[in-house]
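Translate structure to sequence.
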């Protein structure tokens, strides 16, 4: 039993088919008049932006659309968007897309509200006051950024992913509309789904876990194990899409309160240096990270294995844990995700630098087992 824990959910979450084109009542409750939309070209090309904009016509004025967000958002791109939002005198940010547009929108609202440069607010609890309201509409089932107090932004000058964390970063409203995820290609469906799984697994073993985050994480693991394959294989399976969207949001709620670990530390290092998709990176590192941590919290990995569908009865913990890790690895293979660093273009000579970067990443400080640079390098070698 923990002596102390804290848990909070600051976002109002709404779920409904077609809800993204019916935002009028939500806008009215926020009392906003000048809307600035953040998206990416993929969202526009898929036809996801138009119905949202059309549904806003009678609610408020759309004063700007910033749709040039890259796959890995950057400090420079956030500043470009912030300048546009300031010029438009926006009083509400609506973000539509995956983790990059959502995190970009979070960065934009920091600068829109407080002025200055984004890097002035890098770190934990640096933002001084509540921010311009934000509605987050995820089109992937992965990051959970629609309910988290985090934004991860690439600093191109340093080839590093920078973390911004503050309770003020939590979006005011999250809109979960499974119809928006139907056009997501199989590869991105798989990568974002494995990203959500990594959030749930790392949250459950984090040093900051709590009974509340545990419940969300285990339920998310079960939902992902039972729905990701269907979502990847049949994009129009609206039930699987909906279950994945809910699971990703639940995992986001859990990690917003209990944080990450060694898997994300390695993934952040990899993403910063080689721009590998965050979900793919997490998927590659999950089995090795799980093996590393299972030595200190085996009972938790038994519960993870059970949530993954492993038969637990009458078997040793070590057998159950091994099967649980195997179930995660098999899920990645079944969904067509690369399983080796060499498969995503990482040269072997880069591994020592990645270990060095991961060692000081903020995520690693909540890992249940302290990792040395040598141990991180060994994990990288094992995945290469």
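Result:
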């Amino acid at each position: 039993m923990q002596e102390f824990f804290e848990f909070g959910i600051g976002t109002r979450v709404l779920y409904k088919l077609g809800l993204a084109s019916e935002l009028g009542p939500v806008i009215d409750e926020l009392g906003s008049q000048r809307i600035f939309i953040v998206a990416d070209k993929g969202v526009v090309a898929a036809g996801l932006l138009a119905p949202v904009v059309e549904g806003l016509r009678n609610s408020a004025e759309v004063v700007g659309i910033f749709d040039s967000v890259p796959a890995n958002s950057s400090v420079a791109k956030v500043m470009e968007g912030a300048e546009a939002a300031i010029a438009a005198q926006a009083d509400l940010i609506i973000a539509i897309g995956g983790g990059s547009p959502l995190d970009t929108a979070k960065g934009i609202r920091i600068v829109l509200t407080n002025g200055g440069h984004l890097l002035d607010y890098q770190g934990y609890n640096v933002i001084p006051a509540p921010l311009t309201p934000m509605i987050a509409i995820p089109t992937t089932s992965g990051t959970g950024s629609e309910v988290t107090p985090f934004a991860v932004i690439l600093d191109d000058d340093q080839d590093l992913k920078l973390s911004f964390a503050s309770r003020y970063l939590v979006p005011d409203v999250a809109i979960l509309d499974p119809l928006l995820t139907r056009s997501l290609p199989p590869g991105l469906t798989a990568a974002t789904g494995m990203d959500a799984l990594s959030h749930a697994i790392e949250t459950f073993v984090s040093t900051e876990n709590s009974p509340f985050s545990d419940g969300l994480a285990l339920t998310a693991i079960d939902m992902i194990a039972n729905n990701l394959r269907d979502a990847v294989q049949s994009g129009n399976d609206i039930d699987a899409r909906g279950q994945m969207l809910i699971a990703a949001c639940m995992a986001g709620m859990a990690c917003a309160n209990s944080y990450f670990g060694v898997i994300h530390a390695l993934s952040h290092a990899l993403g910063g240096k080689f721009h590998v998709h965050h979900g793919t990176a997490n998927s590659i590192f999950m089995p090795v990270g799980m093996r590393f941590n299972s030595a200190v919290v085996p009972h938790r990995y038994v519960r993870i294995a059970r949530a993954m569908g492993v038969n637990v009865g009458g078997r040793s913990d070590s057998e159950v844990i091994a099967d649980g890790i195997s179930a995660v690895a098999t899920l990645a293979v079944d969904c067509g995700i690369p399983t080796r660093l060499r498969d995503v273009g990482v040269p072997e000579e880069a591994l020592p630098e990645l270990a060095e970067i991961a060692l000081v990443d903020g995520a690693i400080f909540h890992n249940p087992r302290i990792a040395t640079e040598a141990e991180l390098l060994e994990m990288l070698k094992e995945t290469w």
